[in-house]
Structures are given as C-alpha cells and as structure tokens.
Amino acid sequence: MKKRKFLKSLGAASTMLLIDPHEALSQNNVSPIIAKKTALVLGGRGFLGPSIVQSLLAHGYEVTLLNRNKTNTDLFSDLPLIVCDREKEGKSGLKSIDQKYRDTYWDIVVDTWQKSPKAVADFLDEFKEQIGHYQYTSSVSVYDTWDTKFNAETAPLNPLPSFPKTIAEEYRYAIRKTLAEEAIRARTDKYTIFRSHGMRDFRSANPKDIIDEPFWPIRFFRGGEILLPQVENHHIQMTDVRSMVDFMLHCAADNIFGEYNVACQPTPFKDYVSSLIHATKKPKKVYWIDGDFLIENGLIPYKIVPFWKPQPKGSYYFNVQKSIEAGFVHRPLVDMITDQINGYIHRYPKDDVLFGKQIDGTIKCYSADQEKAIIQKWKLKNNL
Ligand SMILES: NC(=O)c1ccc[n+]([C@@H]2O[C@H](COP(=O)([O-])OP(=O)(O)OC[C@H]3O[C@@H](n4cnc5c(N)ncnc54)[C@H](OP(=O)(O)O)[C@@H]3O)[C@@H](O)[C@H]2O)c1
After folding, report:
1. Orientation of helix 215-222 relative to helix 269-280, angle to 10°
2. Substitution site in 40, 42, 54, 67 for ligand 1 pocket (most atoms within 8 Å of beta carbon)
3. Which of 110, 159, 227, 266 has an alpha carbon 20 to 30 Å from 371's alpha carbon atom?
4. Which helix (H) or strand (E) holds 53?
5. 59: number of CA atoms within 13 Å, CB side?
6. Closest atom, ligand 1, to C-alpha of 196
7. Domains identified in the chain and CATH numbers
8. Which atom of ligand 1 is nearest to the CA of 138?
9. Residue 198, SS3?
C-alpha cells in the first residue's frame, strides 16, 4: 500500500474513534502500528550493492531488490526480488513489473546504475511519484576538469551531448554518469547523489580479475623490502565503501538531499604508508626512491605505480567538506586496508596473485623481480 493511502486510512479509522491519529498509534491497549520503512535497491548484488543492502537491513528497512537475477544469485536470495531488465528499450522491462510493486511506496530507492543514463531517466519517469528519497551513486568523473585542486560540488560538470533517446546509445563512463545526474535533477528534488572517488572494499569490483586486486595492501601484506616513490607533495584520495554506505543511511534518516563528494580527505601518501604498516605490522625495510629514478626505470606513475598521479593535479584533491559538514565520516584508512587484505585472502587463500606483465600482455603494476632489481640499482647508486 502507498504511504499516503496508509496514513489516510489510519486517519479515517481514528476519526471514527474520535482520537488523534498519532494517539491511535500509542494507545496502551492497541498494539502500535510501526510500519517498517521500505527500501528498493536497484541492482544490489555486485560490488557496492551488497554493502548497501546489508546496511539497510541492519537499520530495519524492508528491502526489495530489482535486477535481472543473473549476478551473484545466491546473495540475499531470501529477499523479495523484482526481476526486471532495465536495458530493454521503450521501458518494456519496467512496464512488465508486477502491479503490486508498481503501487508500492518506497521510502528510499538506491540506484547503483552505471550504464545507460536513459535507463535512469526511464525508471524515474515510471516510479518517481512513489519514492520518498532517491539515492544515486555517481563519481567525481562528472567534473569537467581535474586540473584544479579542491573541486567542490559547484565545480563545472562535463559538457554534455543531447540526452540519449535510446538505451543503446553509448557514451564513456564520465558522460554516462553526468547525463544520469542531469536526468535525476530534471525529475525530482528528493535525491542525494554520492560522487565517490576510487571505491575500496572487502569486495573487489571484478573478483575474477587480478587487475582489481589492491596493490599496496597486498604488497605490505607480503612484507620484505618494499620500494616506495619519494615524490614531493604526494597526496592520495579514495572512498571506503563502508563509510560511504553509513553516509547514505545517514542521509536517508535525516533527509539530506543534493550532491556530495564522498572520499577521504586528500591524504599524504606517507600517512597511507603508515596505515599500511599498522594494518600489516610489516615490512622489513622500506626504500623511498626518487620519483624520477623510478620513471627512468620504467615505473611510471599511476598505471604501474598505483596511487601516484601527478597529473591532472587535482586528481587526489577533491573537496569533501560539504559531506563532512553533513555528517560523513571516513573510517581510519587502517580499518579499510584491513578489510581489503581480508577480502583478498578470502579470494586468493594462497596469496598467489602476481603483479607485472599478465598472460594476455596487459601490465598490472610491477613484478616482485622488477622491484628487487630497482632497489638494488638504487642502493648501488647511493652506496647504501
Ligand atoms: N568510484 C569508483 O571507484 C567505483 C568503483 C566501482 C564502482 N563504482 C560505481 O559504483 C556503482 C556500483 O556498482 P555495482 O556494480 O557495485 O552495483 P551493484 O548494485 O552491487 O551491482 C550491479 C547490479 O546491477 C544489476 N544489473 C546489471 N544489469 C542490469 C539490467 N540490465 N537490469 C537490471 N539490473 C541490472 C546486476 O544484477 P543482474 O546482473 O542480475 O541484473 C547487479 O545486481 C556504479 O555506479 C559504479 O559506477 C565506482
């Protein structure tokens, strides 16, 4: 039953009894009617979704999922599921949803969608009258430029093509996210958009692909002699999924709307290293090696040495003040790193992921042999 209908019928009943509807809920001899809040999670069984679902359940929401029932079907198999393909053109997937769900009032809808922005628009066109609060996970990729440090939520967004008429129209990730945000703003005021930045969790976004395994936590977990880039003014930034999910629940509880950059504060790389050491009680020794020396030896920033991104210069400097003022708290990095290591060991109990050149020719960071060789060269150069 829709929330409005529910309150109306409660009001009618209490009028007949000549009591205030609120009192009707609190009469000693009447059991209080405490309706659980309803949540619809669009998706929910991938990387981010499961943490959202778990948190909603822990906060007492009645959770329903909507997806195609293809991904991780064993997850939350006891929850109600609306099987629906959002990629069907002409809203045909949405229109085939059972009437009972089309009439349901959802206190909160969480949308983790990253594909066609038209699918976001279609969903809202069909359901916006039945949603108390719509939450969307976006990304800092919506900002037009990353050249500026401390981009706040008011910074200019990507210039956009005209809005797609079909779901099949393809755009790059940043444009899809920006178009989806535009579609949301055009359709409802009761939204919260979370612009995350490099999400980290116990889970991996691509559990079957080593490309997504966390390099630095694994490297420190393994211990030994560790190479580190010595670079001036080196900062990093990322988003802990658990912290973001807590913030989503907080926004739901307090009706906090609008756009929010969600990440840890820009953090000195050395502080990140301290957290890695705390989380792992390792290494034997670290070698802070000059950045130019690393580049000369093939360890180029970012793709080969993660969390070293000198360009664009605002990459790890997004302004998160608005979120903090709204109540966002990023967990200590050491807790997040511990979760990442536990997740990795769960996926790879033999700790046998190898970095460096992959079988298919792609390169994921640098190998243990490369690291050893460069440390040796650095020692010789500096008479260490
Ligand atoms: N900033 C970052 O570092 C970062 C990193 C990773 C992800 N992200 C963002 O985080 C968000 C979370 O993504 P997630 O994959 O983890 O979300 P998720 O909700 O956990 O998983 C995606 C869900 O979408 C469903 N789905 C896929 N295609 C569908 C379709 N055609 N119709 C209906 N449902 C469909 C999947 O189920 P079925 O296959 O069963 O339909 C799955 O349950 C995304 O917006 C992504 O852009 C950000």
Report:
1. 50
2. 67
3. 266
4. helix 49-58
5. 21
6. 1
7. 3-206+236-266+312-348 (3.40.50.720)
8. 45
9. coil
Residue 32 is predicted with a pLDDT of 54
How many angstroms is it from 50 CA to the middle of ligand 1? 10
CA distances for 294 relative to 41, 104, 223, 235, 381, angstroms? 45, 58, 20, 18, 13
* Number of residues written out for the chain: 384
- Ligand 1 mean position, distance from CA 68 (Å): 12
> Residue 189, class by beta-carbon neighbours within 10 Å (0-12 exposed, 13-18 middle, 19+ buried)?
exposed
Ligand 1 test: best mutation among 110, 112, 315, most atoms within 8 Å of CB? 112
pTM of structure: 0.91
Atom of ligand 1 at shortest range from CA of 113: 45
Q: What is the pLDDT of residues 335-374, one digit of tens each?
A: 999 999 999 999 999 999 999 998 888 899 999 999 999 9
